């Protein structure tokens, strides 16, 4: 799919990966349709997209409302005449042992992350099938490959999103549909505001475990999935891809390592240990942001620099051995 002049709907566009993706698409000339609960934040994102020289349409909607998502698709077609890409980025999370998380919070995480993705797929695919082209991108997670403790509801939802992608690809193939692709992006630990907005019953302050990647890296992966769809793409460095491979070879070891990562993610005490539903049911009042303030971009630069130094040192050492 050519990004320039394309029409792409992005859910969860008010913050995090969704917002970063919308801005990245606008910077490459795509016309964006922005979907999220917070109308004022969508207006701000639309203004940023237009500052980058691209048309943008804000459509406030809760992705758990099927009719609202269908109205967003209709608004995209009414304004731009087509839907070339649809990114299901809206998502919420929560931290608590399964036996301690209220059932309503588990249901809400599944509603947003799974049914929200289903609603997006059901709104986008008929338009794409009729026009004979289009790319649907669903956001899962590496936690949809290796499930951690204390985030079981989120992991369940992301396993389900991966399964949905596989099923949809085969359904399209069996129906003889050509030109329409379904891609699933699996972000690693990304620096986004989802941690601050999470439901939390742990008495700890959640944060992404190392290595943390920038939200811009995740957005670039989503754009790559739109441009050249693949069944699954990991958004993160080589460690994320190696971790997924490790789980295929030594699953128990990978699961233990994920549990260690979760301990790291929850190592800081929370100022208020009474528990909160976060932004599951009510949108956050915090200003919309692309990143979560975890220095993901800087940490990536430091890792790259360290890698360059290590490679240079290895090359020098090898040269010395060769000439000695």
Count of discrete domains: 2
> How many DSSP H or I helices?
9
* CATH fold-level name of the largest domain: Rossmann fold
Radius of gyration, in angstroms, nearest whole number: 20 Å
Shape: globular
Query: Order of strands across the widest beta sheet?
Result: 3-2-1-4-6-7-10
Mean pLDDT: 92
The end-to-end span amounts to: 53 Å
Q: How would you characterize this protein structure?
A:
Helices cover 49% and strands 14% of the residues. The chain is of the alpha/beta class. The chain folds into two domains: 7-293, NAD(P)-binding Rossmann-like Domain (Rossmann fold), CATH 3.40.50.720; 297-324. The strands form three sheets. A seven-stranded parallel beta sheet has the order 3-2-1-4-6-7-10, with helices on both faces. Strand 6 (134-139), helix 5 and strand 7 (180-187) form a beta-alpha-beta unit. Helix 1 (16-27) packs parallel to helix 2, helix 1 crosses helix 6 (215-227) and helix 4 (103-131) packs parallel to helix 5. The longest helix is centred in the middle third of the chain and has 29 residues, at 103-131. It starts with 6 loop residues before the first strand and ends with a helix. The relative contact order is 0.14. Residues 305-318 have low confidence and may be disordered.
């Amino acid at each position: 799919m050519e990004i320039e002049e394309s029409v792409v709907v992005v859910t969860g566009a008010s913050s995090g990966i969704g917002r970063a993706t919308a801005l990245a698409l606008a910077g490459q000339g795509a016309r964006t349709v922005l979907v999220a609960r917070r109308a004022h934040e969508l207006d701000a994102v639309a203004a940023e997209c237009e500052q980058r020289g691209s048309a943008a349409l804000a459509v406030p909607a809760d992705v758990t409302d099927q009719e609202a998502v269908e109205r967003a698709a209709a608004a995209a077609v009414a304004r731009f005449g087509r839907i070339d890409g649809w990114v299901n980025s809206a998502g919420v999370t929560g931290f608590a042992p399964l036996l301690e998380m209220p059932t309503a919070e588990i249901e809400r995480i599944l509603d947003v992350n799974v049914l929200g993705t289903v609603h997006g797929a059901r709104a986008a695919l008929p338009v794409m099938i009729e026009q004979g082209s289009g790319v649907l991108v669903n956001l899962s997670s590496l936690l949809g490959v290796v499930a951690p403790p204390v985030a079981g509801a989120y992991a369940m939802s992301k396993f389900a999103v991966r399964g949905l992608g596989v099923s949809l690809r085969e359904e399209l193939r069996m129906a003889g549909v050509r030109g329409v692709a379904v891609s699933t992006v699996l972000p690693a630990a990304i620096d986004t505001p989802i941690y601050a907005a999470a439901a939390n019953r742990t008495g700890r302050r959640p944060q992404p475990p190392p290595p943390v990647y920038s939200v811009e890296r995740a957005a670039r992966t989503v754009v790559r999935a739109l441009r050249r769809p693949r069944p699954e793409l990991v958004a993160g460095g080589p460690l994320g891809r190696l971790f997924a491979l490790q789980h295929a070879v030594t699953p128990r070891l990978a699961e233990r390592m994920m549990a260690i990562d979760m301990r790291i993610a929850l190592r800081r005490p929370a100022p208020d240990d009474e528990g909160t539903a976060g932004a599951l049911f009510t949108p956050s009042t915090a200003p919309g942001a692309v990143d979560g303030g975890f220095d993901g971009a800087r940490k990536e630069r430091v890792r790259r620099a360290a890698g360059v130094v290590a490679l240079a040192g290895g090359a020098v050492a090898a040269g010395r051995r060769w000439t000695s």
